[in-house]
Write a structure and sequence with these properties.
Layout lengths: L8 E5 L6 H12 L3 E3 L6 H8 L6 H21 L3 E4 L5 H10 L4 E6 L2 H10 L10 H7 L9 E5 L4 H11 L3
Parallel strand pairs: 1-3, 1-4, 2-3, 4-5
Helix pairs in contact: 1-7, 3-4
Amino acid sequence: MVEASPPPVVVVMGVAGVGKTTVARLLAQRLGAPYAEADDFHPEANIAKMSAGIPLDDDDRWPCLRQIAEWMSERGREGAGGVITCSALKRRYRDVLRAGYPDAFFVHLSGDRVLIGDRMSHRAGHFMPTSLLDSQYDILEPLQPDERGAVLDVSAGPDELVAEALRQFGA
């Protein structure tokens, strides 16, 4: 009898408005794995800064990234797997996350600035203003060939993105 592999720990990453929450929730459901939202790890000061249209700097991000890495580590230790959203825009941010769980799989949702800006302008109830989108694209460092993950074009629908993510990491 072949033993089933534990669910993976997956980071759904990309700029604001790309659809991380939608895809991550569906992916977590399909995997039967816990789900978390990186926004819930930000202190109030970070939320206030972004709400005011001020981009976060690295010093703002490190504590949040370390907490997410710990969440990932716990999911790995438990064997439950997990899916979390996190912009993870820079390689060094992803390195911090991998320190928590080295086998993490990154699903980078990628899309055209115009499309993503349009999506952001139509969403309600989120603190991240469209005015910060350019700052996110400016610092974005796409996944490198030596990073475990996949880059998926968000012109596909959420169900197609989830199916492709599952195919990419062999679930």
